């Protein structure tokens, strides 16, 4: 029998200090699970997806860029960036910086900024769980965004420059988009719809990644000409974590375990599966073979496209959006990118521009067409929200969606450019020629795989590769 002195009285265990009256345990549990699912999309999902998709010599460097980004966002988030994204207004597009680490702030009920839409209708939502849950959930989104951006820069960006870039970009770029669209900023008050990050996460990472790729410059020509994935099975594992993790990415954004969350989850998987199948069909039709990498790209574009409207559109619309997301980004990546000089010049390593910027813009625009007024009323406390297919005001909504996309693109292009130009004054943005030639071993002193399973590591001299103490001249 337990020592009675060690038994906590039932009245104390259920007191308001641990389970206050306002706490909904189901909502809190779902939100924490959703946050974990989103976090797993970044670590380990994108970490191992990147490690598998790149050339062998860049496997560790690519994985480390993602891993570092996931970790570096956290202190920035709780020390100043969360409140810049979801705090009190400083500017129409930016919140005031502040700490989100004190017990007095994290334990009470979560509150989003009190904002007003036209007519004085309160548009903020009051979740039924602690602020700590909200801070962690939104951190996972910010971390995934910067990791997605890294996909454009793999294979040449200096790791030291990346270490400076991450906190600066989260501070001066991500927080602006998050506050403008989600935190009560001018796009939110104007009625721009972004259910779960089609603009804040995907369009931002695609636009910023493409811009950063321009300033950092391309990979070595030999890497651009030949860049075979070193482990497609590993990449598929990462892609699977990314796909299933999207259940929390979109399912957690009603901030409750409610009907809209269920609809958002189902629509997410409808669109992703449809997009993957359509992309694969285009590959077979034009290239005569189904591509595993193509299937991964189609999956991602479907997930991105549905994100702005996951809980706002009906199931048939999710199916249509999947067809569109498996077709339009496929065309821009597989055809248009080979014709436009700008797309040929800028070396976007993993095609983040197509899979996230194009698909994110497409999803936002289609949300402006297909958002159902009844579903909008479940999620948005904004009067008369509807897509163009459901009323006269829907045409205005479609134009608002395009205008919102233009702001996100414009801000990320300008802010990312300024950040990189400032960093360039301190340290080079690119690795040295020797590091570009060698890869992981030069950048980190480590390699992803042992040679021939014997445990040896390749080492390098200035003139060539050295194996077992014998220098091999480079051809």
State the low-pLDDT regions, or none: 1-13, 114-124, 460-475
Shape: globular
Pattern of helices and strands: HHHEEHHHHHHHHHHHHHHHHHEEE
Helix coverage percent:
55-70%
Structural class: mainly alpha
Quickly count the helices: 20
Short structural description:
This protein has helices at residues 10-13, 25-53, 59-86, 103-106, 131-150, 159-181, 186-190, 198-216, 221-225, 232-251, 259-287, 292-306, 315-325, 328-334, 341-345, 352-370, 373-379, 394-426, 433-438, 440-444, and strands spanning 89-91, 94-95, 459-460, 464-467, 470-473. With 475 residues, it is mainly alpha-helical. A hairpin with a 2-residue loop joins strand 4 (464-467) and strand 5 (470-473).
Structural account:
- With 475 residues, this protein is mainly α.
- It has a single domain, classed as Orthogonal Bundle (Ammonium transporter fold), CATH 1.10.3430.
- 62% of the residues lie in helices and 3% in strands.
- The protein has 20 helices and five strands.
- The chain has a three-stranded antiparallel β-sheet with strand order 3-4-5, with no helix packed on it. The protein has a two-stranded antiparallel sheet with strand order 1-2.
- Helix 12 crosses helix 13.
- It is globular and about 60 Å long.
- 51% of the residues are buried.
- The N terminus and C terminus are likely disordered.
- Keywords: Ammonia transport, Membrane, Transmembrane, Transmembrane helix, Transport.
- One of its GO terms (cellular component) is plasma membrane.
- It is found in: Cell membrane.
- GO terms for molecular function: ammonium channel activity.
- Belongs to the ammonia transporter channel (TC 1.A.11.2) family.
């Amino acid at each position: 029998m337990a020592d009675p002195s060690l038994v906590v009285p039932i009245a104390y265990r259920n007191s308001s200090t641990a389970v206050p009256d306002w706490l909904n345990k189901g909502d809190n549990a779902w939100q924490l699970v959703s946050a974990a699912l989103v976090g797993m999309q970044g670590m380990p999902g994108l970490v191992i997806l990147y490690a598998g998709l790149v050339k062998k010599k860049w496997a560790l460097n690519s994985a480390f860029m993602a891993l570092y980004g996931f970790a570096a966002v956290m202190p920035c988030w709780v020390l100043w960036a969360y409140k810049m994204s979801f705090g009190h207004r400083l500017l129409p597009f930016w919140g005031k910086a502040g700490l989100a680490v004190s017990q007095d702030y994290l334990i009470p009920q979560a509150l989003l900024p009190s904002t007003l839409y036209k007519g004085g209708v309160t548009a903020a939502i009051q979740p039924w769980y602690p602020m700590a849950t909200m801070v962690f959930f939104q951190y996972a989104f910010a971390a995934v965004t910067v990791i997605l951006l890294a996909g454009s820069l793999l294979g040449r960006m200096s790791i030291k420059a990346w270490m400076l870039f991450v906190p600066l970009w989260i501070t001066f770029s991500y927080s602006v988009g998050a506050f403008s669209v989600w935190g009560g900023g001018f796009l939110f008050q104007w009625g721009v719809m972004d259910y779960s990050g089609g603009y804040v996460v995907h369009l931002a990472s695609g636009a910023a990644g493409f811009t950063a790729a321009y300033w950092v410059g391309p990979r070595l020509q030999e890497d651009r000409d030949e860049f075979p994935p070193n482990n497609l099975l590993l990449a598929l594992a990462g892609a699977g974590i990314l796909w299933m993790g999207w259940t929390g990415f979109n399912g957690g954004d009603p901030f409750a375990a409610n009907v809209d969350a269920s609809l958002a989850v189902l629509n997410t998987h409808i669109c992703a599966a449809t997009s993957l199948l359509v992309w694969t069909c285009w590959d077979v039709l034009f290239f005569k073979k189904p591509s595993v990498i193509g299937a991964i790209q189609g999956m991602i574009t479907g997930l991105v496209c549905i994100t702005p409207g996951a809980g706002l559109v009906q199931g048939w619309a999710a199916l249509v959006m999947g067809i569109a997301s498996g077709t339009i980004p496929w065309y821009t990546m597989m055809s248009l990118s080979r014709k436009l000089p700008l797309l040929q010049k800028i070396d976007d390593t993993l095609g983040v521009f197509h899979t996230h910027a194009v698909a994110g813009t497409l999803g936002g625009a289609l949300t402006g067409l297909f958002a159902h007024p009844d579903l909008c009323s479940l999620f948005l406390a904004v009067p008369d929200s509807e897509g163009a297919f459901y009323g006269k005001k829907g045409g205005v909504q479609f134009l608002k969606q395009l205008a919102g996309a233009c702001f996100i693109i414009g801000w990320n292009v300008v802010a990312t450019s300024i950040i990189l130009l400032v960093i360039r004054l301190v340290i080079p943005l690119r690795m040295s020629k020797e590091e570009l030639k060698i890869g992981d071993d030069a950048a980190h002193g480590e390699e992803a795989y042992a040679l021939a399973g014997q445990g040896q590591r390749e080492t390098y001299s200035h003139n060539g590769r050295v194996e077992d103490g014998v220098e091999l001249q480079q051809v």
